[in-house]
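Collaboration report, partner site 2.

Our partner group contributed sequences for two proteins of shared interest, and the home lab folded both. The records are reproduced in the order in which they were received, starting with the first partner submission.
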Amino acid sequence: MLLISYDISNTRLRSKLSKELQKHGRRIQYSVFEIDNNNIVLKNIKEVISQKYAKKLKKTDSIIIIPVNEVNKDSIIRYGQSVQELDRFLII
């Protein structure tokens, strides 16, 4: 699993990155995504960030990719439910 967190001041750039990350995982907080990891996904995400976002970041901006190995994955403690997850349900 990967945790990807970002702090980007440019609203347009931040929105584009958010949409890109939603393709690969789920938002667990406003600027934090949880993504199931495999080498291909990690490589793709790193390439996209390097090519489309890294050069546009200001000195106060950041994107952080944190790998969480399978051993540590089971020790994650969660309280509450992210508000963003509620958007994933479709009521018919």
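Second partner submission, folded after the first:
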Amino acid sequence: MENMGIKRVHLIVHGRVQGVGFRWFTSTIAGRHNIHGFVRNLMDNTVEIDAEGPEERLQLFLTDIQAGPRFGYVDYIEKTSLPPKGYTSFDISR
């Protein structure tokens, strides 16, 4: 199966990203850019995002995520590129 230009990134987002609506913010941004994958809080107060989509849209998604939600902020993002997984939606996990 050819991935037709689909890229995937795994992100760990550091900053004030829990308790500020960051998962909802991320889901909204994913919908805007037609990105699939998931977002979830981690026990160390970071947020994990696994996202895939066309490279151009993924770059726009990453730019918007870096800006952070209104009541939070992003200090930095650990980014790892991975092979596409074939997600068909974007989910918020607990």
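Feedback sent to the partner group on the second submission included the following. The radius of gyration is 12 Å. The domain at 7-81 is CATH 3.30.70.100 (Alpha-Beta Plaits).
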